[in-house]
Amino acid sequence: MSSDRPVYQTQLEAYRAEYGSFIRRELDLGPLALIELGQTRGDFSDPVTGDLHLLRVLSRAYSCIDLGAGKSSGWWPPASMGVTAAGYANTIVVDQAHRLDAVCVKGKALGALDIEGHLPADLDFGAAHWGMHSDPVLGSAIDALWLLCPDADIVAVESALALIASRLVLWSGRVPKSVTKESLSPFHLRLAQDRLRSLGTDRTTLSEVAALCGYSPFHFCRAFKAVTGLTPSRYQTMCRIERAKDLLQSSSLSISDIAETVGFTDTSYFARVFAREAGWSPQRWRLHFRSAGTNEAVLNLLEI
User: How far is CA 8 from the centre of its chain?
Assistant: First the structure.
């Protein structure tokens, strides 16, 4: 690729300008953006941007790459991931048509997660930038990100950022400061849970919840999961869906009103999340449990 390529502020901007005809879908979530591409064989190296970007292979391909820690090559199976350091022009040469998606993370957004020094100041994760990695946990998180709407709750986005940061630390071989169950006291756990359970569209941020406990978002996510077994985003989603179930069964509110009441600004996104968590659509849930309630009332009358 030419060394006099234009300078782009973000990786999403670079993809649109350099490889726009290959883009299948994209989703801009503010601190991070997702993009899926179907590309031919050839040189698909990326220019320098301020973003750290994570590539995930969606179809098997042979490629030669340098993502910031030296060259490597091979047949990369689907779900393999590689991460390019911020401020680095990578090398990606692929021998056949292929599909991939990318998570483009704004460097400032990732750095803002960490005030205790868990992450490298220059966001260069060393060995994490060499070759490709297999990480089902992160893969599932990326799949979940694609389900979000553009104005999704910021807690979900920041939780994804914290997970990406923790996986990069793991891949790099750095030893993070340990987090024990005692690192989040019962008092601070209750404060965090109460804030995450607060319903409505007040756009609570992960940074605000973490600040209640005196932690950075990165440390808070690890401490919260160590105690509860859940990420803050997962905990918040479960609370909202449980409240939605109650409202569907006991109120006459419309689906859109219930979605807004429990903190979803997009009704279709709420319906997708509800179906994923409950196994049924909101409409079917309401119909089933209202019918069950009616049948129980009739049986009670017959017993009398």
Answer: 24
pTM here is 0.74
* Cβ–Cβ under 8 Å, residues 119 and 110: yes
Helix axes 186-197, 232-250, angle to 10 degrees: 50
Amino acid letter at 152? A
Grade residue 177 by pLDDT with cuts at 50, 70 and 90. low
Phi, psi of 275 (to 5 degrees): -65, -40
Indicate if 136 and 77 belong to the same structural domain: yes
Q: Which two structure tokens, joined as six digits, stand for 161?
A: 């950022």
Range of the domain at 148: 1-6+17-174
Query: Which parts of 201-255 are beta strand (E)?
Result: none
For the chain, what is the mean pLDDT?
85
Exposed / middle / buried, residue 268 (Cβ in 10 Å: 0-12, 13-18, 19+): exposed
Distances in Å between the Cα of 115 and the Cα atoms of 30, 120, 295 are 21, 11, 56
